[in-house]
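Dear colleagues,

As part of the handover before I leave the project, I'm documenting each prediction I ran so the next person doesn't have to rerun anything. This entry is a single chain, and its sequence is reproduced below.
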Amino acid sequence: MAKEKKLSTSQYIRGLAGVARFSFKTAPGAVMFKLGGIIINSLLPIAITYFAAQTINQLTAAYAGTPGAGRQALTYVIITAALGLITTIWSSIDNYIQQIMRYRVESRVSDMMYEQFLSLDFWQYDDKNTIDLYDKAQRFSQFYAYVFDRLSNIVSQLVTLVLSLAAIFIFLPFMAAAILLAVLPGVYIQFKVSRAQIAHWNKNVETRRAQSLIEWNMLQPEGIAELRMNGLTRFLMNFRQKLRDKDQHGRLEFERRYIGKNLLSDILQAVTQVSALIWIVLEIIAREQPIGQFVYVQQLVQRALGGANGFISQLSTIDEDLANLFDYQAFMKLPTNTSTGIAQTKPPKVIEFEDVSLRYPLTDHDVLKGISFRVEAGQHIAIVGENGAGKTSLIKVLTGLYAPTKGCITIDGTPLTDIDRASWHKQLSVLQQDFQHYNFADIKDNVYFGDVSKPLDDTLISSSLKDAEAQEFISKLAKKEHTYPNKWMEDDEGNKGTNLSGGQWQRLAVARNFYRNSPVIILDEPTSAIDALAEARIFD
């Protein structure tokens, strides 16, 4: 387990500044509105408290027979009500603006995360450290949209605290200092709790991943039969519960350790609040101060403590988020697939392996060693070997997903490493053993996904399905090729999908590759789920 990273003050400030800059670039209007709202949200409640106190003072004076006091009280009531209405309206608008900003920021960050993940060098998908880093970065990205909200709330609560303390200082200077001292223990405790939460989350990344994978496997319709027949359903449920409890019990344990300290902090604040109220009551009685001062001080003390607690809560939360900023920034800086080179615009005439060896990163043995062969246009070759012999690894280096550790692959004499990878992929039609099941798309789109670089060609889709011998089972479906290949999906007209067998899915995958119509066809056990006669016809 890597040592927990701690933010220095400069890193903390840079992190906050980076979040603010990104939010402003994404939604400048919303950010400006939010900044204005910080002042308004801090001043309006204090103004309402002031006029409410003045109302009580004037009502007391009116009861005592002071001329004009009743009229003045009504004026203060109207002002207080108007300020309350403004607060309500502003709150509704502010909530809408927050939703706009969250949507824009969350969408942008999500897009950036997907683009980064899908652009990594291929070997990184097999690297556990990369996937761990992705899990941690994803956690931060999911809350990125709320970080600016928390940042603005921190500033708002801080302004509320400062203004409330300043207003209290006018009447009770020592009490303002006492309130400030009372909130400091809470700040320390919340920071300790947030650090413990970060350490716990990082320590249990694999536990949560295992739990997530179990949940995913248990909810796949095609796997439920095996789970039941092998008696795995209850076993996996118990295993999932064990992992969940391990994660949650650890979190609850460190929360329990801080209960006593949190309680003492709360008691200190409560005693400070009661002391302030007792003092102002004694002042009113001894010096015959206006009764409204009690309401004024009581509300200001409550707002000061509320602002302090809100500041602590938001600060500890954003502290946790910014501590995860390390992982997010590290993930976004991972090297990506920026392959550039000679564009392969024509179908290759000769593909040649010259003494090619491959050793996967972070391993100590070769999966391919000294492979040499030559394939010319029009040739059909078969690679035969035991499981684990390296057949799939051979495909990975041929497609450019991995570079050979030793030797060279040439395309018409040009090293594959010198060829633009995207242009090379356009020349290939690859059907892998673990081909994709696009359950969210209908059968036609499943075929069209073979080549989305050109407009959908209905004629080519029909011929591809026919050549893959998929037309027979498709013709029996109510919506034909517009049927979803999954019973959990239905179209806009309410037509439910259907679950395909393994052989039917394989025919669909073969049709997808026929539709791609590339000059180089690579098939990795493409007909393992298809009967022998149909397999022979498809190969023909």
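The longest helix spans residues 69-118. Strands lie at 350-358, 368-376, 406-411, 414-415, 428-431, 520-523.

All the best with the project,
I.
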